[in-house]
Amino acid sequence: MLKESVMLIKNGYLALPGEADFIKKDLKIDQGKISEIADSIPGDADIDATGLEIFPGGIDPHVHFYDPGYTDKEDFMHGTGFAASGGITTIVDMPCTSDPPVSNAANLEHKLEIVGPKAHIDYGFFGGVSRQMFDAGFHEDMDSIQDHVLGYKVYAVSGAEETWGALDHFRFYKVMEHAQKLGKIILLHAEDAEYVNNASEHFKNLGKDAAHWYAARPELAEVLAVQSAIRIAEELNADLHIVHVGTSEAAALIDRAGTEKISGETCPQYLAFTLDDFIEQGPALKISPPIKKSPNDSELWELLSNASLSFIASDHAPGTPEEKKPGDIWCNSAGIAGTGTMFPFLYSSGLKEARISLEKFLRIISSAAAERYRIDDRKGSIARGKDADLVLVNPKESWKVDEKQFYSKGKLSPFHGRTFTGKIHKTLVRGGLVYDHREGVVGDPGHGRFIRPKKNEGGKHA
Ligand SMILES: [Zn+2]
Question: CA 198 to CA 156: how far, in whole Å?
C-alpha cells in the first residue's frame, strides 16, 4: 500500500497535456494532489517508473453499475475494481439502472450510503428524468439534485417503458428547457422511438437472430433521433450530449451543428466491431443501440480523431450468464462488461496503431469529459494541483484479454482473446494505489470519493 502523504514517482515518461510526446520527469504527490513536476526531484523514489509511461487516470463517463437493486449483474465494488484494473480512476454512473433510480435527493442520498463504502475509484452520478417523472411534475426532483449530479440522462426510446419511460419531443423540450435554467447538460439515448418500436414489432415476427435486432434499430433510427434532438437543443440554445453514438452520419450531424453546446461520445465496441461481428458473436455483442455496418467503425475513428466526437465511454452494462445466454436475441440483455477494457483498447488500437495522436488520446480518455462535466478543476490531466490520478503503463508488454479474469461480475466480453499492446502496471487514485499488475485490485473499497461538479463561474448557479 502506498498511502504516505508525500510520495515520489521517478524516472517515468509523463503524458502531459498539449505535448506531442512523452517527457521524462519526476512527479511528487502531496496529500493526494500532484504537487511538483520537475526534471529531477531529490529524494528516494516510492515508485521507480523506469521504462513506464505515466498517464492521467482515465475517465469513463458512462457506466451502469446496477447498485443498489440489480447487483446480480454488477455492483460498485466489482465495477470500480474492474475500472481500476483498466486504468480508469473516475466513473460516472447512469441514473436509471439502480433501484431506486437517481431521480431525486432522497434516492441519491440512499444510493450514496450504499455505494460509497464499496467504491475503489472516484465516482459521479447523472440524474435522470423519465416520462413517469415528467407526468408527476419533474421540476422539484430535478432541482433537488442539481448541485450533486453532472447532468441529466433521458431516453428517446426506452427498454423499460413501464418503469422508466422515454420522452417524446414535447417532453424532451420541456425537460431540456428546465435543465438549461439550472445550467445543466442533457444526455440523450438517441434512437427514434416511432421507428424502433414499430420496426421491433415487425422484425420480432420474422426471427430471433442478431440480424433481426439490428434491423429494428438501424443507422437511420439513430440519425432521425439525433437530428431532431439537435434541432430542439438549437431552438433553446441548450446543452446536449448524445451518448453512445454508433453511426458515423449521426456523429457528423453533431459536428455540423457547429457549437460546443452539442457534443457526442462513442464507445470502443462501435470502433472495434461491425454488424458482421455481432452476427458471429451474438449475445457477447448485443448492445443498445446495436453495432452498425462497416464502414461506420473506421469512419467513427476519423470523427473521434478530428474531435467531431469529444470522448469515449464504455457504456459498461454486464448481464448475468442467464441473461446473456445464447438463444432468442430479443430476450437477451443488452450491454457488455467494458469499463476495464476501454483504456487498453484505445491505447493499443488508437495510440499505438497511430489512429490518434498522444494529445488526442489524452483528450479522449480524460480531459474532454472532465471539462464537459465540470470536474476539470480536480480531474482530467497531469498538472500541479490536480488529483494524483495516475496510470503507469509498460508500452512494450503485450497481453491477451481474458474475460474469466475480469474483476467485474460480468465475464463475457467481445474483446475476449484479443491481444493488446501496453500493459497497465499500476493505477493510483489521489495517490492511493488501487491496482497493481502483480497483485490485482488492492486497497480497501471505500477509497473512492463522490464527485460533484464545480460551481458555475463566479460561484453562482445559473
Ligand atoms: Zn448506457
Answer: 14
**Quick check: helix, strand or coil at residue 113?**
helix
Helices H, strands E: what count in the chain?
15, 17
Cβ neighbours of residue 25 closer than 8 Å, sequence gap 6 or more: 12, 14, 37, 38, 39
Q: Tell whether omega for the bond before 101 is within 30 degrees of 0, i.e. cis.
A: no
Mean pLDDT of 188-201: 98
Residue 458 confidence (pLDDT): 44
SS3 357: coil
CA of 25 to the centre of ligand 1 (A): 38
Cα 335 to ligand 1 centroid, rounded to whole Å: 8
Cα 449 to Cα 115, 123, 287, 326, 367, distances in angstroms: 10, 6, 29, 38, 19
Residue 360: enclosing H or E segment and its boundaries?
A: helix 358-362
User: What pLDDT score was predicted for residue 214?
Assistant: 98
Q: Per the structure block, which three cell numbers stand in for 225?
A: 433521433
375-411 burial code (b ≥16 CB/10 A, e <16): bbebbbbbeeebbbbbbbbbbeeebebebeebbbbbb
Evaluated on CA atoms 395, 274, 265, 84, the torsion sign reads negative
Categorize the per-residue pLDDT at 457 as very low, low, confident or very high, splitting at 50, 70 and 90: low
How many angstroms is it from 97 CA to the middle of ligand 1?
9
* Cα(316) to centroid(ligand 1), Å: 7
Distance 35 CA to ligand 1 centre (A): 36
Q: Measured in angstroms, how far is the CA atom of residue 405 from the centroid of ligand 1?
A: 23
pTM of the predicted protein model: 0.97
How far apart, in whole angstroms, are the C-alpha atoms of residue 149 and residue 126? Answer: 5
pLDDT band for position 3 (cuts 50, 70, 90): low
**CA pair distance 101, 154, nearest whole angstrom:** 12
User: Any residues with CB less than 8 A from the CB of 231 and at least 6 apart, and which?
Assistant: none
Match 498539449 to its residue by C-alpha cell.
18
Measure the CA–CA gap between 410 and 320, rounded to whole angstroms: 7
**Cα dihedral: 321, 327, 331, 333 (round 10):** 40
Centroid of ligand 1 to alpha carbon of 388 (angstroms): 28
